[in-house]
Amino acid sequence: MTTLVIILMLAAVAVGAVATIPLMIRSTRRHALPPDPRKPTIGSPAQVWVDRGERVLRELGSALTDHEAWRGVLDDAEQIVAELRVTGGQVAEVDHALAQIQDPVLAAAERLREARVTLLSRMESAVTGLEKARAEVVELIATASSVTVDPDPVRELNSRLEGLRAGLVEVRGLSDPESGSGMGGRAQGHP
After folding, report:
1. Within a domain: residue 91?
2. pLDDT of residue 177
3. Which residues contact 163 (CB under 8 A, 6 or more apart)?
4. N or C: which end of the chain has fewer CB atoms below 10 A?
5. What does residue 175 show for φ and ψ, rounded to 5 degrees?
6. Reduced to 3 states, what is the DSSP secondary structure of residue 30?
């Protein structure tokens, strides 16, 4: 009887181990390092927007070091800057692709230019919103009591920052060549 129980327990362990193998394979594939993304050219509009976003993040970090109640705002700002970096890399890819096209009047070149303008416009909007949020945070910290922090402004800022991040993700997704959708928009998007 004990032999049968031991065999059943070993069989259950073996089945459990076999069942987790696909999950382990899937999780390691998901965390595989992507190839190095292209970086925006120094002095390009994309690089300038990324730099401005990173500067705002550093300023927010120093302003919020002693204000744990505002940590969510800093987390959201970090996500926005991460999206700015990815979007800046995508602009660099578009710039690289445009440089490869010999005839600038081709429809492909026009679609790439439109995608670039749209990505840059979204980057501009995100950085402008981030700069505005930084100014509001500094103002609220300066005027708030050191004992209490009203959570409503924090929630409002978190919501706006999440909206900025989501907008960058959405625009980046629209310009993904694998999705097959094109880009529209004619804003300048230059810093």
Report:
1. yes
2. 52
3. none
4. N
5. -95, 5
6. helix
Whether the predicted pLDDT of 187 surpasses 70: no
Look at the chain and report how many structural domains it folds into. 2
Q: What are the phi and psi torsion angles at 54 (to 5°)?
A: -65, -40
Cα dihedral 79→85→88→92 (10° resolution): -150
Range of the domain at 20: 1-32
Q: Which of the pair, 190 or 153, is modelled with greater confidence?
A: 153
Is the predicted pLDDT of residue 46 greater than 60, yes or no? yes
Question: Model pTM greater than 0.85?
Answer: no
Number of residues in the chain: 191
Q: In whole angstroms, what is the distance from residue 20 CA to residue 13 CA? A: 11
CA distance 164 to 157: 11
DSSP 113-174: HHHHHHHHHHHHHHHHHHHHHHHHHHHHHHHS-SS---HHHHHHHHHHHHHHHHHHHHHHHH
Flag whether 188 is in a domain: no
Structure tokens at 70: 């505002």
Is residue 125 in a domain? yes
